[in-house]
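Researcher: I'm preparing a figure for a lab meeting and need a structural model of a single chain. I don't have an experimental structure, so a prediction will have to do for now. The sequence is pasted below. Please return the structure as tokens so I can convert it later.
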Amino acid sequence: MSNGGRFAREELLNTADPLRMSCGDEVAFTLLEIVEQQARSKEIDAALDTASRIAYSTDWSAAIEAIAIGQFNAGDQRGALRTAKLIPHEINRSGVLMHIAFEQARSGHLEGAIETVSHIKAPLRRDAVLLGVALIRARANDISGAFAAARNIGSESARTRAYREISQ
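Model: Understood. Here is the structure written out token by token.
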């Protein structure tokens, strides 16, 4: 990032707190854009600092989600998982965890994928993501890995469906 861009961003950040009181939505939106840019630029500490200035929980959750996705896209799956756990809204958190688990499954890290899925609290969503992991491994001709993922599905009917789809 150029010094001019960095100074302009720092100036905006330094004025964000007083502006938060008067025009919160606009400032939160601007801060969220900065967080997304910082995450894409792999400036994770700066993105976390910027996110800490966002007052509204929904916007803050979106910022943390953007950071986790940025870490994930940069190849930092561990960091993405750590950051995803900070996302307060379950639907957003489980979406990021799903993407991480699918990528782990695609790259052959089945145990990591199953571990990642275990952090999804909603049982139906967890089962759906485990089915996805199992099917990814089945398409990679890792049938034993596919069955291993399917064995972790909590619902008996969903597990039976997974076994049937893997066997096809």
